[in-house]
Amino acid sequence: MSALSPARRRAGSSSSGIRRGEAAAGWLFTAPVLIILGVFLLVPVLMALWVSFSDWTGRGSPFSSNVGFVGLDNYAAVTTGGGLAERDFGTALRNNAWYVLLVVPLQTALSLFLAVLVNRAILRGRGFFRTAFYFPSVTSSVAITVLWLFLFSSSGAINEVLSWLGVNGPNWFSDPSGVVHNLLGAVGVTSGPAFLTGNTLLGVSWWDWLAGPSVAMSAFILMAVFTTSGTFMLLFIAGLQNIGGDVQEAAMMDGANGWQRFWRVTLPQLKPVLFTVLTLGLIGTWQVFDQIYTGTQGGPGKTTLTPAYLSYSSAFLSQQWGQGAAIAFVLFVIIVALTILQRFVLRDRPVSRRRIRQYEVPAQKGAKR
Amino acid sequence: MTATASPQTTVLAEQRVDGPVKPAKHRLSRKALGWQIGLYALLIVLALIYIYPFLVQVATSFKTDAAAAADPISLAPQPFTWAAYERLFLNSDFPVWFGNSVVVTVFVTAGRVFFNSLAGYALARLQFRGRGIVFAGLIAVMAVPTVVLLIPKFLVINQLGIYDSYAGMILPLLVDAAGVFIMKNFFESIPPSVEEQARIDGAGTFRIFWSVVLPMARPALITIVILSFQGSWNELSHFVISTQSPELTTLTKGVASLASGQLSQGSQFPLKLAAAAIMTIPVAVVFFIFQRRIMNASEGAVKE
Known about the structure:
Number of domains of chain B: 2
Structural class of chain A: mainly alpha
Oligomer: heterodimer
Helix content of chain B: over 70%
Strand order of the largest sheet of chain A: 1-2
Structural class of chain B: mainly alpha
Mean pLDDT of chain B: 83
Distance between the termini of chain B: 55 Å
Low-confidence stretches of chain B: 1-25, 297-304
Helix content of chain A: 55-70%
CATH architecture of the largest domain in chain A: Orthogonal Bundle
CATH topology of the largest domain in chain B: MetI-like fold
CATH superfamily of the largest domain in chain B: MetI-like
Largest interface: A-B, 101 and 98 residues
Number of strands of chain B: 0
Order of helices and strands of chain B: HHHHHHHHHHHHHHHH
Largest sheet of chain A: 2 strands, antiparallel
Number of helices of chain A: 18
Order of helices and strands of chain A: HHHHHHHHHEEHHHHHHHHH
Mean pLDDT of chain A: 84
CATH class of the largest domain in chain A: Mainly Alpha
Radius of gyration of chain A: 27 Å
Shape of chain B: globular
CATH class of the largest domain in chain B: Mainly Alpha
Strand content of chain B: under 5%
Low-confidence stretches of chain A: 1-16, 363-369
């Protein structure tokens, strides 16, 4: 094949023989995709990059002569300004960081758990269970948010169930208090030590960074786990089905029990899928917009504000276009940086000697028997 | 019949008599049975948690406002009322929203099926200078998070003068890099011999694509249809930034405004849940029709 391809390419470009006109056709066929992606993706990004360095207020064209270049002012305003813009951005990052920190591990663990349950060899109604778990992933985030607002309203279904258990449920979407702060409050800690309350990062005190997701945000966290676990379950099921049964059998012969087989045999083989799920999860959870737009618009007390929504509201609602664009680019950098970091952490490493020894010991015992 | 059947039953009986002689095996199977029951109980509870909210949603849409607040968890509306649906279809913009969603979804789905497969075919089969660069560009595009593009997309739509028009709503969604990727992978998986034959017979490239290759690509095309249908029907953020007039509001945008209370006094949960339920029906129908393929499609996506 590889020996053939240069010859083919030459034939294609010399416009003779059976493959004549192929180069033209190639460009023609890809042209619609290239033009639309170019006009609505590449050009916009460049325009927004300009806007993030300008003082455009949303009136007229951002390229007209009365729009000025302000350098890094917009980036400075949201990261070091000391004003409301910086505090809002810090709050949004705090909210979303807690969201990511809780949603990604929970959805990964739950979807893996569901996949293992549903993927058993002997299971009646497998199709039904798979459908049931996947269905929430099909529906739109707007419809799910509306449903969630009802389920988690003060007199909603969730609080009704909690009351059966003797728990007085919170008024979920109107409760701005942080979950970690509430837990600390339950053991009598109501205000943080001076070194936490005295120092700030992005206009938010360290103590407030540690507040945890607000009760309102926790409802969104549960919603994200509910809606995404089905999709990722399918990915895990596919991964599980690609694993050959022979390795499992070999492990069984060596006397590994079900638990050991899962952790030492199945999970290492699922690593590529795990990697995909974590990457998709990480990218998705930093882009929380629809739920906030539909449900809370950042409230209560700005505790469900996310960078994506803040970027939208700064530009479209407050007419701070430069700052909105700057937030979008900072968010982009965060997502790219975290994806690269995660790639680095989960990279394939040679098996350490300690690991090898761990695997050898039980095998030798088995051989002696 | 009876003569041949009886020896078998005696064999079975003997085996059953053998049973208690090996107690270890017997206990194991009882333990396995316990596990099995536990597993099913767990699965049923989990399935209930995943499905019950949707049942509550449908049930509540037939309740009165007072009943929805008083008994948020029952599945039997007392009293039963169509009021929410009547109000949605007769006294609100809901039919307009629905119509806009249909228009956008039809155009976007058709556009993606055609343009994605065209580009996917070119990238898989046609030899042309710059193919590698085009492909690398597509991969790069897929890596850009959509939420980051809200302001940029508005800027260019505004600049082109198609803000607040169907063109502005549809054109930017008309192709997607992921779809091109799926089609390219599919075309690479089918043998080129049929096309070679057509080429020898003198068919042009587009002719080969249209009448030879595309009919073979049905499974992949259905995947594209499902993905773009779901994607455009459920799309919110793009319509938030590309339109403002009420006549161009889509279901997602309209229901979102309903949820944030722009149309209503009080909570009016039956009305909102009815709107959300109707909005879910088309994607649910597509899901149940193509269920098997949806499950397989995502399986195929991982194998790469």
